[in-house]
Protein backbone atom coordinates (compact mmCIF):
# COMPACT_ATOMS: atom_id res chain seq x y z
CA UNK A 1 0.00 0.00 0.00
CA UNK A 2 2.85 2.35 0.86
CA UNK A 3 4.48 1.66 -2.51
CA UNK A 4 1.22 2.49 -4.32
CA UNK A 5 0.98 5.82 -2.49
CA UNK A 6 4.57 6.69 -3.40
CA UNK A 7 3.96 5.81 -7.08
CA UNK A 8 0.79 7.94 -7.16
CA UNK A 9 2.63 10.88 -5.62
CA UNK A 10 5.44 10.55 -8.19
CA UNK A 11 2.93 10.43 -11.06
CA UNK A 12 1.16 13.51 -9.71
CA UNK A 13 4.45 15.41 -9.32
CA UNK A 14 5.56 14.51 -12.85
CA UNK A 15 2.23 15.59 -14.29
CA UNK A 16 2.53 18.97 -12.57
CA UNK A 17 6.01 19.51 -14.03
CA UNK A 18 4.89 18.33 -17.49
CA UNK A 19 1.88 20.66 -17.67
CA UNK A 20 2.81 23.89 -19.54
CA UNK A 21 2.17 27.15 -17.75
CA UNK A 22 -0.87 28.89 -19.24
CA UNK A 23 -1.44 32.62 -19.30
CA UNK A 24 -4.11 33.58 -16.79
CA UNK A 25 -6.48 36.52 -17.13
CA UNK A 26 -6.02 39.14 -14.40
CA UNK A 27 -8.74 39.66 -11.83
CA UNK A 28 -10.35 43.08 -11.83
CA UNK A 29 -9.72 46.16 -13.89
CA UNK A 30 -6.39 47.27 -15.32
CA UNK A 31 -5.72 50.98 -15.67
CA UNK A 32 -3.61 51.96 -18.69
CA UNK A 33 -1.82 55.31 -19.06
CA UNK A 34 -2.31 57.67 -21.99
CA UNK A 35 0.46 59.55 -23.83
CA UNK A 36 0.40 62.67 -25.95
CA UNK A 37 1.19 61.50 -29.47
CA UNK A 38 4.48 63.44 -29.55
CA UNK A 39 5.73 61.47 -26.54
CA UNK A 40 5.77 58.14 -28.38
CA UNK A 41 5.76 58.99 -32.12
CA UNK A 42 7.95 61.17 -34.36
CA UNK A 43 7.52 64.95 -34.51
CA UNK A 44 6.51 65.84 -37.15
CA UNK A 45 3.99 64.60 -38.20
CA UNK A 46 2.74 63.81 -34.70
CA UNK A 47 2.25 66.38 -31.98
CA UNK A 48 0.66 69.18 -34.01
CA UNK A 49 -2.79 68.67 -32.46
CA UNK A 50 -1.78 67.43 -28.99
CA UNK A 51 -3.62 68.97 -26.04
CA UNK A 52 -1.29 69.21 -23.01
CA UNK A 53 -2.83 67.68 -19.90
CA UNK A 54 -5.36 65.52 -21.74
CA UNK A 55 -3.13 62.49 -21.24
CA UNK A 56 -3.30 62.90 -17.45
CA UNK A 57 -6.98 63.86 -17.35
CA UNK A 58 -8.04 60.81 -19.39
CA UNK A 59 -8.29 57.23 -18.14
CA UNK A 60 -8.28 53.88 -19.94
CA UNK A 61 -9.81 50.90 -18.14
CA UNK A 62 -9.41 47.30 -19.36
CA UNK A 63 -11.31 44.30 -18.03
CA UNK A 64 -10.91 40.68 -19.14
CA UNK A 65 -14.04 38.75 -18.16
CA UNK A 66 -14.73 35.09 -18.91
CA UNK A 67 -17.30 34.09 -21.46
CA UNK A 68 -18.19 35.31 -24.94
CA UNK A 69 -17.00 38.84 -24.17
CA UNK A 70 -13.23 38.43 -23.93
CA UNK A 71 -12.17 42.03 -23.28
CA UNK A 72 -13.96 45.25 -22.35
CA UNK A 73 -12.24 48.61 -22.83
CA UNK A 74 -13.57 51.90 -21.48
CA UNK A 75 -12.21 55.36 -22.12
CA UNK A 76 -13.02 58.11 -19.63
CA UNK A 77 -11.71 61.17 -21.40
CA UNK A 78 -10.91 64.62 -20.05
CA UNK A 79 -8.95 67.75 -20.86
CA UNK A 80 -10.13 67.71 -24.48
CA UNK A 81 -11.75 70.45 -26.53
CA UNK A 82 -15.41 71.03 -25.67
CA UNK A 83 -18.23 69.89 -27.96
CA UNK A 84 -15.80 68.13 -30.27
CA UNK A 85 -16.01 64.77 -32.02
CA UNK A 86 -13.04 62.43 -31.62
CA UNK A 87 -12.28 59.12 -33.33
CA UNK A 88 -11.16 55.96 -31.49
CA UNK A 89 -8.94 53.32 -33.11
CA UNK A 90 -8.53 49.96 -31.39
CA UNK A 91 -5.06 49.14 -32.60
CA UNK A 92 -2.18 46.70 -32.48
CA UNK A 93 0.65 47.25 -30.03
CA UNK A 94 3.63 49.42 -30.93
CA UNK A 95 7.13 50.26 -29.77
CA UNK A 96 7.66 53.92 -28.76
CA UNK A 97 9.60 55.92 -31.32
CA UNK A 98 13.10 57.00 -30.25
CA UNK A 99 15.12 59.38 -32.44
CA UNK A 100 18.73 58.19 -32.68
CA UNK A 101 20.30 60.67 -35.10
CA UNK A 102 20.58 61.72 -38.73
CA UNK A 103 21.90 59.90 -41.78
CA UNK A 104 23.41 62.40 -44.25
CA UNK A 105 24.34 59.88 -46.95
CA UNK A 106 21.53 61.12 -49.19
CA UNK A 107 22.81 64.72 -49.25
CA UNK A 108 24.66 65.11 -52.57
CA UNK A 109 24.67 68.83 -53.31
CA UNK A 110 25.68 72.00 -51.44
CA UNK A 111 26.00 75.63 -52.43
CA UNK A 112 28.24 78.24 -50.82
CA UNK A 113 27.98 82.03 -50.91
CA UNK A 114 31.34 83.80 -50.64
CA UNK A 115 31.90 87.20 -49.09
CA UNK A 116 35.39 87.42 -50.61
CA UNK A 117 34.47 86.37 -54.15
CA UNK A 118 30.74 87.25 -54.46
CA UNK A 119 30.72 87.46 -58.25
CA UNK A 120 30.64 83.67 -58.51
CA UNK A 121 27.87 83.10 -55.96
CA UNK A 122 26.55 80.58 -55.33
CA UNK A 123 29.40 78.08 -55.67
CA UNK A 124 28.06 74.60 -56.31
CA UNK A 125 29.59 71.55 -54.59
CA UNK A 126 28.99 67.90 -55.38
CA UNK A 127 29.27 65.72 -52.30
CA UNK A 128 29.47 61.99 -51.69
CA UNK A 129 28.90 61.29 -47.97
CA UNK A 130 29.42 57.91 -46.36
CA UNK A 131 28.92 57.97 -42.62
CA UNK A 132 31.46 60.34 -41.06
CA UNK A 133 33.55 60.90 -44.19
CA UNK A 134 32.95 62.43 -47.60
CA UNK A 135 34.55 63.38 -50.87
CA UNK A 136 33.59 66.48 -52.81
CA UNK A 137 34.33 68.67 -55.78
CA UNK A 138 33.74 72.27 -56.84
CA UNK A 139 35.02 74.45 -59.69
CA UNK A 140 37.76 71.96 -60.62
CA UNK A 141 38.86 71.31 -57.03
CA UNK A 142 38.47 68.03 -55.16
CA UNK A 143 38.60 67.39 -51.45
CA UNK A 144 38.13 64.92 -48.64
CA UNK A 145 35.97 65.82 -45.64
CA UNK A 146 34.93 64.69 -42.21
CA UNK A 147 31.26 64.96 -41.30
CA UNK A 148 30.07 65.06 -37.70
CA UNK A 149 26.52 65.27 -36.42
CA UNK A 150 25.45 66.03 -32.85
CA UNK A 151 21.72 66.24 -32.39
CA UNK A 152 20.55 68.60 -35.15
CA UNK A 153 23.97 70.26 -35.54
CA UNK A 154 26.31 69.31 -38.39
CA UNK A 155 29.96 70.19 -39.05
CA UNK A 156 31.80 69.55 -42.31
CA UNK A 157 35.57 70.05 -42.43
CA UNK A 158 36.90 69.76 -45.98
CA UNK A 159 40.61 69.57 -46.87
CA UNK A 160 41.38 70.18 -50.54
CA UNK A 161 43.55 67.57 -52.28
CA UNK A 162 47.04 68.16 -53.60
CA UNK A 163 46.73 69.16 -57.23
CA UNK A 164 43.58 71.22 -56.71
CA UNK A 165 43.91 74.81 -57.88
CA UNK A 166 43.00 76.15 -54.44
CA UNK A 167 45.42 73.86 -52.52
CA UNK A 168 46.32 74.33 -49.68
CA UNK A 169 42.80 75.17 -48.59
CA UNK A 170 40.36 74.01 -45.90
CA UNK A 171 36.80 75.07 -45.26
CA UNK A 172 34.70 74.45 -42.16
CA UNK A 173 30.94 74.51 -42.58
CA UNK A 174 28.79 74.62 -39.45
CA UNK A 175 25.04 74.28 -39.70
CA UNK A 176 21.69 72.97 -38.55
CA UNK A 177 19.56 70.16 -39.92
CA UNK A 178 15.93 71.22 -40.26
CA UNK A 179 13.01 68.95 -39.48
CA UNK A 180 12.62 68.30 -43.20
CA UNK A 181 16.26 67.19 -43.53
CA UNK A 182 17.69 70.29 -45.23
CA UNK A 183 21.08 71.67 -44.13
CA UNK A 184 22.11 75.31 -43.76
CA UNK A 185 24.59 77.43 -41.86
CA UNK A 186 27.79 79.46 -42.10
CA UNK A 187 31.30 78.60 -43.24
CA UNK A 188 34.85 79.88 -42.92
CA UNK A 189 38.03 79.04 -44.84
CA UNK A 190 41.77 79.18 -44.29
CA UNK A 191 42.13 81.99 -46.85
CA UNK A 192 39.90 84.27 -44.76
CA UNK A 193 36.79 83.74 -46.86
CA UNK A 194 33.40 82.78 -45.45
CA UNK A 195 29.67 83.19 -45.80
CA UNK A 196 26.53 81.11 -45.80
CA UNK A 197 25.85 77.65 -47.18
CA UNK A 198 22.93 75.26 -47.64
CA UNK A 199 22.11 71.89 -49.12
CA UNK A 200 20.51 71.78 -52.57
CA UNK A 201 20.20 68.13 -53.51
CA UNK A 202 19.08 65.29 -51.27
CA UNK A 203 18.03 65.40 -47.64
CA UNK A 204 19.21 64.04 -44.30
CA UNK A 205 17.11 61.15 -43.02
CA UNK A 206 16.24 60.56 -39.38
CA UNK A 207 17.38 57.30 -37.83
CA UNK A 208 15.32 55.79 -35.05
CA UNK A 209 14.22 52.74 -33.15
CA UNK A 210 10.62 51.70 -32.55
CA UNK A 211 7.47 52.41 -34.54
CA UNK A 212 7.21 55.49 -36.74
CA UNK A 213 3.44 55.47 -37.21
CA UNK A 214 0.10 53.81 -36.64
CA UNK A 215 0.33 50.02 -36.43
CA UNK A 216 -3.12 49.25 -37.84
CA UNK A 217 -6.41 47.94 -36.53
CA UNK A 218 -6.27 45.10 -34.00
CA UNK A 219 -9.12 43.46 -35.89
CA UNK A 220 -11.08 44.54 -38.95
CA UNK A 221 -14.28 43.54 -37.15
CA UNK A 222 -13.97 46.60 -34.88
CA UNK A 223 -13.62 49.67 -37.11
CA UNK A 224 -12.99 53.18 -35.89
CA UNK A 225 -15.81 54.79 -33.92
CA UNK A 226 -16.44 58.23 -32.46
CA UNK A 227 -17.43 60.00 -29.26
CA UNK A 228 -18.26 63.64 -28.60
CA UNK A 229 -17.15 65.71 -25.62
CA UNK A 230 -19.45 67.90 -23.59
CA UNK A 231 -19.10 71.59 -22.80
CA UNK A 232 -16.32 70.77 -20.32
CA UNK A 233 -14.19 68.73 -22.72
CA UNK A 234 -15.07 65.41 -21.11
CA UNK A 235 -16.59 62.30 -22.66
CA UNK A 236 -16.53 58.53 -22.59
CA UNK A 237 -16.67 55.51 -24.85
CA UNK A 238 -16.78 51.73 -24.49
CA UNK A 239 -15.94 48.76 -26.71
CA UNK A 240 -16.20 44.98 -26.23
CA UNK A 241 -14.04 42.37 -27.94
CA UNK A 242 -16.08 39.19 -28.26
CA UNK A 243 -15.24 35.72 -29.50
CA UNK A 244 -16.85 36.74 -32.79
CA UNK A 245 -14.51 39.73 -33.13
CA UNK A 246 -11.36 37.71 -32.57
CA UNK A 247 -11.07 33.93 -32.82
CA UNK A 248 -7.43 33.58 -31.82
CA UNK A 249 -6.12 32.53 -28.43
CA UNK A 250 -3.27 33.50 -26.14
CA UNK A 251 -1.81 36.90 -25.26
CA UNK A 252 -1.97 39.87 -27.64
CA UNK A 253 -0.62 43.40 -27.36
CA UNK A 254 -3.09 46.21 -28.04
CA UNK A 255 -3.19 50.00 -27.91
CA UNK A 256 -5.82 52.70 -28.39
CA UNK A 257 -5.28 55.78 -30.58
CA UNK A 258 -7.46 58.91 -30.43
CA UNK A 259 -7.75 61.33 -33.35
CA UNK A 260 -9.53 64.66 -33.52
CA UNK A 261 -12.04 63.69 -36.17
CA UNK A 262 -9.98 62.50 -39.11
CA UNK A 263 -7.12 64.86 -38.19
CA UNK A 264 -3.76 63.77 -36.71
CA UNK A 265 -3.59 61.56 -33.64
CA UNK A 266 -3.59 63.38 -30.29
CA UNK A 267 -3.51 60.56 -27.71
CA UNK A 268 -1.95 57.08 -27.75
CA UNK A 269 -2.32 54.65 -24.89
CA UNK A 270 0.48 52.59 -23.44
CA UNK A 271 0.62 49.12 -24.94
CA UNK A 272 -1.39 46.65 -22.87
CA UNK A 273 -1.55 42.86 -23.09
CA UNK A 274 -4.80 40.93 -23.07
CA UNK A 275 -5.39 37.18 -23.02
CA UNK A 276 -7.82 35.43 -25.35
CA UNK A 277 -9.13 31.99 -24.46
Oligomer: single chain
Number of helices: 3
Strand order of the largest sheet: 7-8-9-10-11-12-13-14
Q: Find the CATH topology of the largest domain.
A: Immunoglobulin-like
**Cα shape:** elongated
Q: What's the Cα radius of gyration? A: 29 Å
Task: Give the domain tally.
Answer: 2
CATH class term of the largest domain: Mainly Beta
Main beta-sheet strand count, sense and barrel state: 8 strands, antiparallel, barrel
**Class inferred from helices and paired strands:** mainly beta
H/E element string? HEEHHEEEEEEEEEEEEEEEEEE
The span between the termini is 41 Å
The number of E-state strands comes to 20
Low-confidence stretches: 1-21
Mean pLDDT: 92
CATH architecture field of the largest domain: Sandwich
Helix proportion range: under 10%
Strand content: over 45%
Q: Which helices and strands, and how do they pair?
A:
Elements lengths: L1 H17 L11 E3 L1 E3 H4 L13 H4 L1 E5 L5 E9 L7 E8 L5 E6 L5 E6 L8 E8 L2 E6 L2 E10 L2 E8 L9 E8 L5 E7 L4 E8 L3 E5 L15 E4 L6 E8 L7 E11 L4 E5 L2 E5 L1
Antiparallel strand pairs: 1-3, 2-19, 3-4, 4-17, 5-16, 5-18, 6-15, 7-8, 7-14, 8-9, 9-10, 10-11, 11-12, 12-13, 13-14, 18-19, 18-20
What can you tell me about this protein's structure?
With 277 residues, this protein is mainly beta. The chain folds into 2 domains: 25-97 and 211-276, Sandwich (Immunoglobulin-like); 100-208, Quinohemoprotein amine dehydrogenase alpha subunit, domain 2 (Lipocalin), CATH 2.40.128. 9% of the residues lie in helices and 48% in strands. The protein has 3 helices and 20 strands. The protein has helices spanning 2-18, 37-40, 54-57; strands at 30-32, 34-36, 59-63, 69-77, 85-92, 98-103, 109-114, 123-130, 133-138, 141-150, 153-160, 170-177, 183-189, 194-201, 205-209, 225-228, 235-242, 250-260, 265-269, 272-276. An 8-stranded antiparallel barrel has the order 7-8-9-10-11-12-13-14. 23% of the residues are buried. Mean pLDDT is 92; it is low at 1-21.
